[in-house]
Amino acid sequence: MTTDIYTFLDAHNIGYTKHEHEAVFTVEEANKLYQEIPGAHTKNLFFRNHDKSQYYLFIIASHKRADLKKVAIELEEKKFHFANPDELIEYLRLTPGSVSALGLVNDPEHKVRVIIDEELWGSEFVNAHPNTNTATLTFTRSDFQRFFEVVGHAPQQIVCE
Predict the structure, then answer these.
(1) How far is CA 96 from the centre of its chain?
(2) Confidence label for 125 from pLDDT (cuts 50, 70 and 90)
(3) What is the DSSP string of 74-115?
């Protein structure tokens, strides 16, 4: 069952500002809308290792490119593959185009390992989709970090170029 993210955030006193907008499916589409929304914007990639024994949510600043070869070496993995839509639904209860850090609310068994761009972790304000691509939520750094504490996921910070 999918957890309602607004109910979850409110129940845990995690503050946010909601910005509704048209559905966006790519970073390029989102960037057009984000000019009006302050703070760091995220790109979220859901992938798995070669033998499907570990799944990862990789959260980076939207203006950066993910060097998955470099990340694989840092995480001591041989190779990464993007997870398919069925795996995304199974692990985070999300659909393509709506991948978000907030999907971790649907991973109470902590099957997904979280990797976050160090720049985002230290940003004053961070934006994330509320598990749908028709809105963006802006969090203060402390509220964003508190979300991870409450869901029990400790993101591993890495430096992205």
Answers:
(1) 12
(2) very high
(3) HTT-S-EEEPPHHHHHHHHS--TT---GGGGGG-TT--EEEE
- CA–CA gap between residue 56 and residue 61 (Å, rounded): 16
Residue type, 91: Y
Q: What is the pTM of this model?
A: 0.89
Taken in order of first residue, the domains within the chain and their CATH numbers are 5-158 (3.90.960.10)
pLDDT tens-digit profile of 26-45? 777 777 777 788 899 898 99
How far is the C-alpha of 1 from the C-alpha of 161, rounded, in Å? 37
Give which of 92, 116, 113, 122 is closest to 104, Cα–Cα.
92
The pair phi, psi for residue 150, each rounded to 5°, is: -65, -40
Distance CA 39, CA 69 (A): 28
- Torsions phi, psi for 49 (to 5 deg): -80, 175
Tokens 């490119």 locate to: 65
